[in-house]
TrEMBL record:
Pfam family of the protein (one): DIOX_N
InterPro entries xref list: DIOX_N (IPR026992), IPNS-like_FE2OG_OXY (IPR044861), IPNS-like_sf (IPR027443), Oxoglu/Fe-dep_dioxygenase_dom (IPR005123)
Taxonomic lineage: Eukaryota, Viridiplantae, Streptophyta, Embryophyta, Tracheophyta
Protein name: 1-aminocyclopropane-1-carboxylate oxidase homolog 1-like
Gene: LOC107422925
Keywords on record: Iron, Metal-binding, Oxidoreductase
Matches recorded under PROSITE patterns: FE2OG_OXY (PS51471)
Length: 380
């Protein structure tokens, strides 16, 4: 486990943004990169030894030295065993308490014995690998910057807006509320995507039951609010990086959904900001990482926390992760979400305006991963 202080490197981190902008034409370089449709993997395949300037991390994206002793339990992300959650009332109560505590403090926890077969998890990971390592010309058919298709591949959803480009390629696939036509999915991973999404959706329903109970609500409350109506799966591919100290795999951010269930591989690099320390989230074989999204923080009126996290670049690669986002993203919707009335009182008035999922996601996406949260924009 690695935690961190606020020590910074003495290189481009001390150069003003104006100076950096003057040194190169970022817009032209970003456009040229995008037009290759080959992503970060395409750069790596050319054998580069120095990363292009567009990938250099932001001056405020600091790297740190370790400041927490190895194995310090105060800085260990909670690991919650779901065994017995559906048939043992005593166990379920214990699990609900742990889920509630982790959601209110860390905003993150890992789960084991969650019910998704290991063979399905491994199959999904290999499906992501096959997609990104297939022939570039085949992969390019799915390259796009709009979300009209069932599955879209690109590098950095906010490529033209973000001040720094992240060292990763991604495909995004909408699996609910409308199941895509198998013929519209890539041949190399279509079947496993559909099977994996069924398993993840079942788990999502259970997790929202536990979260509802942790809030003191009816177990079905969050599910009846349609928190599991939509599911988007993101397959992330982080190629090995020749200069990982200069860039980020994913810049610090919070998630713009209700809940994220993440599968990561053994390479690591995922970190969560906890008590002003960046903490590694270690790889646990068979485990899944769960984190609270912005929309769940909004409807719980800050009871549950959507916490900043990031992914470091690594010389070793590729790193593969699968992020399952519970939300309807940019689908048209009129349903308004605001703080849950049962959680409000004279001492706990609403802190957020009502918003649709689409409006929240549109604001978040337009802002991009600029190191700030979208939540303050929706505060009363």
């Amino acid at each position: 486990m690695v935690a961190t202080t606020t020590a910074t490197r003495k290189d481009d981190s001390e150069v003003s943004p104006e100076t950096l902008k003057a040194e190169y034409d970022r817009a032209s370089e970003v456009k040229a990169f995008d037009e290759t449709k080959a992503g970060v993997k395409g750069l790596v395949d050319t054998g580069i030894t120095q990363i292009p300037r567009i990938f250099h991390r932001l001056p405020n994206e600091q790297f740190y030295e370790s400041s927490v002793p190895e194995g310090d339990p105060r800085f260990s992300i909670p690991v919650i065993d779901l065994i017995g959650v559906s048939n043992d009332l005593v166990r379920r109560k214990e699990i609900v308490e742990r889920v509630g505590e982790a959601s209110a403090t860390w905003g993150f926890f890992q789960i084991v014995n969650h019910g998704i077969p290991l063979i399905v998890m491994e199959g999904m990971k290999e499906g992501v690998r096959r997609f990104f390592e297939q022939d570039t010309e085949v992969k390019k058919q799915f390259y796009a910057r709009d979300a009209k298709k069932s599955l879209v591949y690109n590098s950095n959803f906010d490529l033209y807006r973000a001040p720094s480009t992240n060292w990763r390629d991604t495909f995004s696939c909408r699996l609910a509320p409308d199941t895509p036509n198998p013929q519209d999915l890539p041949e190399v991973c279509g079947d496993i995507l559909l099977e994996y999404s069924k398993q993840v959706m079942k788990l999502g329903v259970l997790l929202f039951e536990l979260l509802s109970e942790a809030l003191g609500l009816n177990p079905n409350h969050l599910n009846e609010m349609d928190c599991t109506e939509g599911l988007v799966i993101l397959g992330h591919y982080y190629p090995g990086c020749p200069q990982p100290e200069l860039t980020m795999g994913t810049s610090k951010h919070t998630d713009n959904d209700f809940l994220t269930v993440l599968q990561q591989d053994h390479i690591g690099g995922l970190q969560v900001l906890y008590n002003d320390h960046w903490i590694d989230i270690p790889y646990e074989p068979g485990a899944l990482v769960v984190n609270i999204g912005d929309l769940l923080q909004l409807i719980t009126n800050d009871r549950f926390k959507s916490v900043e996290h990031r992914a470091l670049a690594n010389r070793i690669g590729p790193r593969i992760s699968i992020a399952n986002f519970f939300f309807t993203a940019l689908l048209p919707t009129k349903k308004l979400y605001g703080p849950i009335k049962e959680l409000l009182s004279e001492d706990n008035p609403p802190k957020y305006k009502e918003t649709t999922v689409r409006d929240y996601v549109a604001y978040f996406n337009n802002k991009g991963l600029d190191g700030t949260s979208a939540l303050p924009h929706f505060k009363i």
